[in-house]
Amino acid sequence: MAKIIGDRAIIVGGSIAGLLSAKVLSDYFEQVIMIDRDKLPETPQARRGVPQSVQPHVLFTKGYRILAEFFPGIEEQLDNNGALSIDWAREFKHFVEEKWGIEAKEASDIVSITCSRYLLEWTIRQELLKLPKIKILEQSKVAGLVYDAQTNQIRGVKLDSTQQTELTADLIVDASGRSSQASQWLEQIGQTAAPETVVNPFLGYATRRYKLPDNQSSNWKVLLISQSPPKNTRLGYLAKIENNELIATLGGYGKDFPPLEDRGFREFAQSLAQPDFYQAIADAIPTSPIYAHRATANRMRNYHKVKLPVGFIALGDAVCALCPVYGQGMTVSALGAKTLQAWLDKSSRGKLDNNRFQKQLAKNNSFHWMLATSQDSRFPTTVGGKSKSGTVDKLMTGYMNKLVSKSASKPNLQLMFLEVAHLLRSPLYLYHPAVIWQVLT
Ligand SMILES: Cc1cc2nc3c(=O)[nH]c(=O)nc-3n(C[C@H](O)[C@H](O)[C@H](O)COP(=O)(O)OP(=O)(O)OC[C@H]3O[C@@H](n4cnc5c(N)ncnc54)[C@H](O)[C@@H]3O)c2cc1C
């Protein structure tokens, strides 16, 4: 049983990072208020404040396990709500580095779910609402921070554009996503904004849902035809989701944006490195328009590099928004909630060292940031990344390409690679002598 260290915590943003943090905070505060600018839908559906909710979302096994730890029984709820369980070793078909990965014969424990982003968020919200300490304030936009200059403490938030209404708390958590305004709020009260690092691959998505064709007998639940830097900028992603639907996404790096009308969408699908994506949608009946998404840059707000006033922290996409292709965001948010838990555990009433929290979070995020930005930087059109011209960088890239390629013929390498990808094993394992030997021989 966790200890109580404060009366009230406020979270700005009620999406994945906000929901998971709210659960953690409810163990340490008497009351937790989660504020969102949207009216939160009563049934699973897309909403304005989360424009990416119509886009596909992979949930890594690590993220799924953290969800189950925070909300015991949520796996069953997701199942009841129509999410499909997926064994990534057996039901994920992946074309990468010009080869198809092999399908495992045995069942694995690299398991999570495939469903729409809004079904997942809605299910978590239903679970959170069962906790008596949680209060959700909808249709309320946070517009600034309440600051006590004498104690150098953030004491609350200002609501709506008039900033007339104030709500006070012992801790304010910014989980308002990639378009967070918190840095500007800090500047408004005379503090330093978090310096930003942006690595923009100019990747565009176009996504459409289809009725799953009756004759769809494939044994995959998710199929991915990956981009291949530096030349092949295009990718195709398909996932079976709830309600017998297929979510189909085309992606193009370096402003090679997939078209948003039917004919262009199909032509782009036909141009992919393998025909499987096009074959799956060719005769399928669309159930949605084609939705574009182009706000995909990697954006890091370096809160760990400034001295924050007491009583304020930030996490989730508000701190580290990643290029979506690598499917890390929600799991990184879940890991951020675990970092929050560990920090609160070491804190006590009136003693919340928020700068220490941001440093730990930055440390934990750094691997995910490095993975996304180093892969994106393999495209010459990416702006903001470090150039990859050094001998070590070339060796590392060459080794990783070889590892991916060899995994297509060595089941144990493929399984290990999946375990690392799903954050079940340390990435350092990829450099274990036994693994290097298998890759290089
Ligand atoms: C195209 C795309 C595809 C993605 N695919 C994947 C994937 O496959 N796998 C994966 O794990 N992740 C993926 N992600 C990332 C994932 O969506 C996020 O990492 C995840 O949703 C966590 O974000 P968040 O909760 O921090 O912020 P968000 O989801 O952006 O939510 C922010 C919330 O804050 C609210 N808000 C904002 N400002 C205010 C304010 N001033 N006052 C009150 N409320 C406010 C908004 O209404 C919203 O509810 C993808 C992202 C994009 C853009």
Descriptive terms for the model:
441 residues; alpha/beta; FAD/NAD(P)-binding domain; Alpha-Beta Plaits; 7-stranded mixed sheet; 5-stranded parallel sheet; 22% strand
DSSP strand tally: 20
Indicate the CATH class of the largest domain.
Answer: Alpha Beta
CATH topology of the largest domain: FAD/NAD(P)-binding domain
According to CATH, the homologous superfamily of the largest domain is: FAD/NAD(P)-binding domain
Main β-sheet: number of strands, strand sense, barrel status?
7 strands, mixed
Tell me the strand order in the biggest sheet. Answer: 5-4-14-15-16-13-17
The tally of domains stands at 3
The first-to-last residue Cα distance is 51 Å
The mean pLDDT is 94
> Fraction of residues in helices?
25-40%
Shape: globular
Number of helices: 13
Listed once per kind, the bound small molecules are: flavin-adenine dinucleotide
**Structural class based on helices, strands and sheet pairing:** alpha/beta
CATH architecture of the largest domain: 3-Layer(bba) Sandwich
What is the radius of gyration computed over CA atoms, rounded to a whole number of angstroms? Answer: 22 Å
Kindly estimate the percentage of residues that lie in beta strands according to DSSP: 15-25%
General description of the model:
This protein is an alpha/beta fold. It folds into three domains: 6-49 and 126-199 and 297-376, FAD/NAD(P)-binding domain, CATH 3.50.50; 204-293, Alpha-Beta Plaits (2-Layer Sandwich), CATH 3.30.70; 391-440, no CATH class. It is built from 13 helices and 20 strands. It has helices at residues 16-25, 61-70, 74-80, 88-91, 117-128, 182-188, 262-270, 276-282, 329-346, 354-376, 391-407, 411-421, 433-440, and strands spanning 6-12, 29-35, 84-87, 92-96, 99-100, 111-114, 134-137, 142-148, 153-159, 165-168, 171-174, 196-199, 204-211, 222-225, 234-241, 245-252, 291-293, 298-301, 312-314, 320-321. Strands 5-4-14-15-16-13-17 form a seven-stranded mixed sheet. Strand 15 (234-241) and strand 16 form a beta hairpin. It is globular and about 65 Å long. The termini are far apart. The relative contact order is 0.16. Bound molecules: flavin-adenine dinucleotide. Residues 12-18, 35-38, 49-50, 52, 55-58, 141-142, 175-178, 181, 205, 293, 296, 316-318, 324, 327-331, 333 line the site of flavin-adenine dinucleotide.
